[in-house]
Amino acid sequence: MNPTPSAPVSPAPSSWLQSTYRQLTASWRDSFLGSGPELVPPGLPEVPGQPLLGSLSAFRSDLIGLLMSTSALGPVARFRMFRIPMHVVTDTAIAQEMLVDKKESFKKTRELSVYLQPLLGNGLLAAEGAIHQRHRKLLAPAFTPKRVSSYGDLMVEETIRQLGRWTPGRRVDLVEEMTTLTLTIVGRALFGRGMREEAEQIAQAFTEAMRAMMKRITGLIQAPYSFPLPAHQQMRQAVATLDAVVQRIITQRRAEGVDHGDVLSMLLLSRDEVDGTGLSDKEVRDEVITLLAGHEATASALSWTWYELGRHPDVVAKLTAEVDAVIGDRAVTVADLPRLPYTLSVVEEAMRLHPPVYALAREASEDVEVGGHRFGTRSTIFINTYGIHRRADYYPDPLAFKPEHMTPEAKKARPRYAYLPFGDGPRVCIGAHFALLELQLALATLVQRASVKVDPGERTTDPLMTLRLRGTLPATVGPRRASAGHA
Q1: Is the pLDDT of residue 113 over 50?
Q2: How confident is the model at residue 428 (pLDDT cuts 50, 70, 90)?
Q3: CA-CA distance, 165 to 422, in Å (whole number)?
C-alpha cells in the first residue's frame, strides 16, 4: 500500500513573497513582451487586433469565431494574444506533419501543463515524455477494443435506467441528462462505481475548473495559482470538490485490496517493471480525474447530436426506422452495431459539425518547419479541427447536417486528416473507442425507447475543454415503447 504523501511544509512568508514576485514578473514579461527573440514565419496573414492586447477580447468572447476568422485568411494564419503570435492551421497535410510526421518536435501547450495543473496534475492528458509513455502503457490494456466491448451491456443498462425517469410529458434539459448519463457510465465502467448521485456535483466542479482556466489564460496579470485572485479560488474550490469524491473511492479500494477487474484496480495494483513500486495516491488521483474528465467529450457529442436531430426530423425518421428494423423490442448490443451504419453516421456527422476536441494546441519544442513555414521554439500552433471539419473542399455543403457525409464512400474520397474529433497521432484520445461505442449504444437505445421533442431554436457554442453547447437544451420527453431487455 502506498500511503498518501504528507502535505508539503509551507514556505516562510518572505520566501513565499520572493517566489511569488519572481513568478509574477516572469509571467508578466512573457504575456506582454513575449519570451524574447523568437522565430516567427514572415508574411503570414494576421487578424488585426488591438494595440498591446491583440485579439484578447475576441478570444474571451468568441473563440470559435476567432479561429474561423483566422483560418479564413489561409491554411496557416495567426492572431496575437498580447504580443505573442498564435498560429492557426486549417489544413490536413500540415495537421499530419504536426501530429505524426514531426510529432517529436511538438508538445502540449502550457494551457495543460500550467493552467490545468491543479486539476489534472500529471494525468495522461497533461503529462509529457517518459511520464506520458509510462501512464499510457499502463492504461492501454483497459481500452483495447475487446475490453471496451465488454462494457457495452452496462452502457445500455445505464441508458435504460436514465430513461426510467422520463415520464410522459416531462420537461428536461438534455445537456444535464446526457452529462448525468455519461458520468454514470464512465464511473461504473472504469471505476466499478456509478456516479449518478454525485453527477451534478462532479459536473459543476469540472465546469467551474474549466471557467477558472479560461479566466487565467485571458487574465491581464498571469499570476501563479498561489496568488489570491478570484479565478484561482474558483479553481481551488472545484479541485477540492473533485478530490473529496475521488479520494473516498481510492481510500476504500486501498482498504479492500481486491481486484475488481476495472481501471481503478489496474491503477492500484500496477507495479513498475524496474523497481516494483506502485503508483502513489496522487498518481492514481491524477489518472482518475483525467478519465472522469473524459465524460465531457461524450456528453457534449450527445447533446449536439440531439440538437441536430431536433432540427432534422427527416434524419430522426430514418434513424428510428433503422433501429426498429434491426433491434425491434429487445435491448441493443455491441454485436448489433455493424448493422446500424446510419446510427454511426449520425453520431459522426454531429461530431464533424461540433467536434468535442475543437482545436489541438501544440507548442514547438524546437525550431521546426511545417507546411513550408519555419517556426521557432515555443511557438504556439493550433490545429483548427473545427475549421478543417467545415472546409468545402473536404465536405460538400459543409455547414449542413448530413449523415451522408460519413458514408464509407465519402470517407474514402477525403484526405486522411479531414476528420479529427478526438485528435490523432500518438496523443489521440485513449478513450476514443470507448466514447464512440457509448455514443452509438446510447443513441440507439434512446431513439428506440424514448420520444424526444427538442425545443426549436439556435444554440451557440461554449468552448471550454470540449466544445460544449452553451446553456440548456430543453426537450419534452417520454417513453416511446415498453421494450423488453435490460431493466
Answers
A1: yes
A2: confident
A3: 31
Residue 487: closest CA among 194, 149, 164: 164
399-427 pLDDT per residue, tens: 999 999 999 999 999 999 999 999 888 88
Angstrom distances, CA of residue 206 to CA of 199, 213, 486: 11, 11, 31
Is the pLDDT at 384 greater than 50, yes or no?
A: yes
22 CB contacts (<8 Å, ≥6 apart)? none
Q: What is the full DSSP assignment across 302-334? A: HHHHHHHHHH-HHHHHHHHHHHHHHHTTSPP-G
First vs last C-alpha separation in the chain: 38
Name which of 84, 112, 78 is nearest 371 in CA terms.
78
* DSSP letters spanning 149-161: HTTHHHHHHHHHH
Closest listed residue to residue 389, CA positions, set 309, 304, 454, 294: 304
**Which tens digits make up the pLDDT trace of 15-57?**
555 555 455 445 544 544 444 445 788 889 999 999 888 999 9
